[in-house]
Amino acid sequence: MSLRTTTAYVEDVSPGSGALPPRAWYASSDARSLSLNGNWRFRLSDTADAEDDSFAARGYDAGDWAQVTVPGHWVLQGHGSPVYTNHLYPFPVDPPRVPTENPTGDHLRVFDLPADWPEDGAAVLRFDGVESCARIWLNGTELGEFKGSRLPHEFTVGHLLKTVGNVLAVRVHQWSAGSYLEDQDQWWLPGIFRDVTLLHRPAGSVRDFFVHASYDHLSGTGTLRVDSDVAGRVTVPELGVDVATGEPVTVPVEPWTAETPRLYDGVLATGGERVPLRIGFRTVELSDGLIKVNGRPLLFKGVNRHEWHPRRGRALDLATMREDVLLMKRHNINAVRTSHYPPHPAFLDLCDEYGLWVIDECDLETHGFTEQGWRDNPVDDDRWTPALLDRAARMVERDKNHPSVVIWSLGNEAGTGRGLTAMAEWIHGRDGSRLVHYEGDPNCRDTDVYSRMYARHAEVERIGRGLDGGPHRRRELPFILCEYAHAMGNGPGGLADYQRLFEAHDRLQGGFVWEWIDHGIAHPELGYAYGGDFGEELHDGNFVCDGLLFPDRRPSPGLVEYKKVIEPVTVTADGPAGTVRITNRYDFADLSALAFPWSYEVEGETVDRGTLPVPALAPGESAEVELPAAPAGAPAGEAHWTIRAVLASGTSWAPRDHVVAWGQIPVSARRVPYVAATARPAPGDGVITLGPAVFDARTGALRRIGEAAVTGLRLDVWRATTDNDDGAAWQSDLRYGLLWRKLGLHRMRHRLDAVEVGEDALTVRTRVAPAARELGLSTVYRWTSDADRVRLTVSTVPDGDWSVPLPRLGIRFGLSAADLVQWYGGGPGEAYPDTRAASAVGRWQSTVDDLQTPYVRPQENGARIDVRWAELGGLRIEGDPAFHLTARRWTTEQLDAAAHRSDLVPGDTVWVNLDHGQHGIGSQSCGPAPLPRYHLRAEPAEFSFVFSPSAATGTTATG
Ligand code: GAL
Fold first, then answer.
1. First vs last Cα of the chain: how many Å apart?
2. What pLDDT was estimated at residue 686?
3. What is the pLDDT of residue 27?
4. What distance in angstroms lies between residue 370's CA and the mean position of ligand 1's atoms?
5. Quick check: CB of 183 below 6 Å from ligand 1?
6. Would you say residue 2 lies in a domain?
7. E strands, 438-536, where?
8. Could you tell me which of 5, 14, 381, 355 has the C-alpha nearest to residue 178?
9. What pTM was estimated for this model as a whole?
10. 739 phi and psi, to 5 degrees?
């Protein structure tokens, strides 16, 4: 007798049995449907076959079963726990076998048909997504089983339905042969995580249909043909179209683009059903080596989107999907790669409606086979090819009617093999109206696009210039970065440098930032949990938190930066004086939807405002627009023009006046503070007084300025390393975080060499150096005063072999009380040398708490750049030159030691860093380190701060 009988299907490479062939998905028609979402009874077993006999055979007695919500993942509902691995399979790699320990969730739902459920016709039961494998019974009859977690499966059930007391039983296994094909970098989350729906299928109802709606940009016409398995009529009232299925019709139309998502409502009516259509006319083609839509090349300003909700995992509701789309549109994002599986189908409806280019990616990744040099990779093993083709077909058939989908992607990180070729051939054959993408094959054998991930700037530039060589086929293809700018923790740095390349070279058609949202799981103690927080023995820590949104969907500084870098209008001052250059960087839209308010600011205060008359420039056009005369009688001081491009009227995705783009043009330079050294240092009673400042006479340490007590002021070179500083384990380049620690920059010692009281200065000489190393920084603090203010000049000279850049260079000190922070300089948000595009010069204010950026794993954050002056804790600080400002209620060491936000406990002191420089951020948690021009080299440096007492102030921020 074989041990593996009833559950053999779990380890079967085939896609399953019993399900209907795939077809187009649509949300509503006039046929009845019944949602089976809601509370289901639930029982968890440790193995696939622990409960086999009792489940189907014993009349489905769910007596003592628990309850779960469907859609949902049982591990997020108190049954078992989630597991996070990047690419390692959390089970032995022995395809297609899976472990005996195979958490298995039996789901039971009893339902009645609504009183008016039609008696005639058939019905199908649809599952939109079940991870990883399901076997289904209705009223005791087994319907079949399937794999392919993020794809729909339907079963014929009409003949089994009863008016009341239908029992639907679904057995879900966490692991199956399908898991080998679903090794995406994400949490393993079993469950029925998308909708379950019963659909009435009246006689003569629509089965599958394919909307072909192309656009001819030369004639301005669209051609529509709807192919349908069941013949019927297609009407589009707005276009006066009324044709039979299969019959083409050409009419003048407005095309669909992501910038102008024009949809036409239509109806497909067969004898038994009326299906609403939302038709977008557009033509995607590869021509002149470029991806073109409606005859024009595209520039993708994209993101990779996993489905994520911090409490519901991948079980997303419509409101959350819409929030994602609105956030993308409001941040100038124009494209989504649905990494790494087809999303909930409703998401694509939203992309059609609001306008986003979509790369729809198949649910396929076999990344874990890289550990064994790709041996036994399912995509190169014919036994698995039917499963791969099934997945390709289920994606294409489900999503083929979405104008937003312009490219099909075979999957992600699955090596190379015959299975991929089979998928690509099938897709090209079935849908010649779109292109095919896959990143993992350097030969681009099956693809229409040369795609890479995390290529560094220099290589991208070579590719842009066509100097990259490679196989002939690849050299002919347009290039995209399907992943770049790894948004893990603080960062990504270097976005603006990539964008400059994309804009300079036609072949570079943009990229998709990795990734949209941190996959942190809401946790009662930790804030957000990441890998390892559920006791997984194999995990990849916080590598799962690498998004532009925090888990609660608050935009991170990385998203704000991205919005600025990809803005569709640029405002520059490269023309004659008194003019500003406005450039339209949309691919399709003119500027008629935008208005251009300006303001004239002196020292960050608005002195005058108005609106700039900007012509409705066509895509790619630019114009020099005359600025008004500088306002008469404006106060003296540093002045800027700020010009914004805002929505002239509300749209479906943002209200009127929403800022799409902006630019700032400096008019006059800042006057650097001058402090005459007129006061004399006055020793007395263990202290030295110099103007408003009091020092310890023995150590030269600053004790107070005016009423503000100051502790521990000294040179600081350490920052709590960011994920990008630390770099990914596999990085072959220097990983600065590790190097800095090895050098001991996190444990610098400060040796006092001299305290010199001079005529007009107090000078403190020190050497700052790490234990165990011979290199150091000779550092001199020189204090002078004009009686009201005190000026500190810090001079440092590195000695020894400093081939390594510094994390930061500046001073830090503690203030006993500080809450409100005001400053004039870069803001409102965080900025570092290579993440500073979105920082605008203005007057800003915040509380100390709000200066913190809540990275899921705490790390250096919150610096404001180009700060001319700041006020906090009773001190006014002016910089010569401008400085970076951070203030927090814990020390850098505490920040560095914290694993979760909950580890950060506010102390009594506010620790302030005033930095002369910071090292760049880069993207080395997966991609390249900061470009050399953002390195903070250890070089002789001198910088000054002017301190004076300030009354606690409270004016409102402007900027
Ligand atoms: C890529 C992969 C993504 C993700 C990313 C790093 O290699 O395609 O799924 O793992 O790296 O976060």
1. 78
2. 96
3. 81
4. 13
5. no
6. no
7. 450-453, 479-484, 508-513, 521-523, 527-529
8. 14
9. 0.97
10. -65, -45
**518 CB less than 6 Å from ligand 1?**
no
- Out of 636, 668, 700, pick the residue that ends a domain: 668
Residue 279 CB contacts under 8 Å (≥ 6 apart), including other chains: 211, 213, 224, 236, 263, 264, 265, 266, 403
Kindly report the CATH number assigned to the domain that includes residue 573.
2.60.40.10
| 603 and 465 within one domain | no
> What's 805's domain CATH number?
2.70.98.10
pLDDT > 60? residue 5: no
Q: Check pLDDT > 60 for residue 2.
A: no
355: CB partners within 8 A, 6+ apart: 257, 258, 259, 260, 261, 329, 334, 404
678 occurs within a structural domain = no
Residue 81 counted as domain residue? yes
Percent of all residues in the chain with a pLDDT value above 70, rounded to a whole number: 98
As a whole number of angstroms, the distance between CA 661 and CA 650 comes to: 16
> How high is the pLDDT of residue 781?
98
| Last residue of one domain, picked from the residues 668, 696, 723 | 668
Encoded tokens for 855 = 């990275």
828 CA distance to ligand 1 middle (Å): 31
Regarding whether 575 and 552 lie in a shared domain, the answer is no
Burial 490-501 (b: 16+ CB within 10 A, else e): bbbbbbbbbbeb
Mean pLDDT of 67-77: 98
> What would the two tokens of residue 356 be?
């986003």
Mean pLDDT of 951-956: 46
The tens digit of pLDDT for each residue in 835-869 reads: 999 999 999 999 999 999 999 999 999 999 999 99
Q: Which domain holds residue 662?
A: 569-668
CATH of the domain at 52: 2.60.120.260
Show which residues are catalytic.
Answer: 413, 483
- The alpha carbon dihedral of 307, 310, 312, 313 has a sign of positive
**Statement to judge: residues 883 and 912 lie in one domain:** yes
Are residues 306 and 430 part of one domain?
yes
Say whether both 337 and 470 belong to one domain: yes
The answer to whether position 264 is within a domain reads: yes
Name which of 193-202, 336-345, 668-677, 946-955 the model is least confident about: 946-955
Measured by CA distance, the residue closest to atom 9 of ligand 1 is 185
Residue nearest to atom 4 of ligand 1 (CA): 185
Residues 544, 593 share a domain: no
| Same structural domain, 483 and 582 | no
Whether residue 162 sits in one domain with residue 174:
yes
Condensed to tens digits (0 to 9), the pLDDT of residues 526-577 reads 999 999 999 999 999 999 999 999 999 999 999 999 999 999 999 999 888 8
CA of 218 to the centre of ligand 1 (A): 41
> By alpha-carbon position, which residue is closest to atom 11 of ligand 1?
926
**What's the pLDDT at 81?**
96
CA distance 605 to 614: 25
Query: Cβ(783) to ligand 1 under 6 A?
Result: no
pLDDT tens digit string along 15-67?
999 999 999 999 889 999 999 999 999 999 999 987 765 566 566 778 889 99
Q: In this predicted structure, what is the pLDDT of residue 57? A: 57
Mean pLDDT in the chain? 96
Task: Count how many domains the chain has.
Answer: 5
Report the residue count for the chain.
959
**Cα 853 to Cα 550: distance, rounded to the nearest angstrom:** 10
Query: What's the rounded Cα separation, in Å, for the pair 858 and 726?
Result: 13
What pLDDT sits at residue 951? Answer: 73
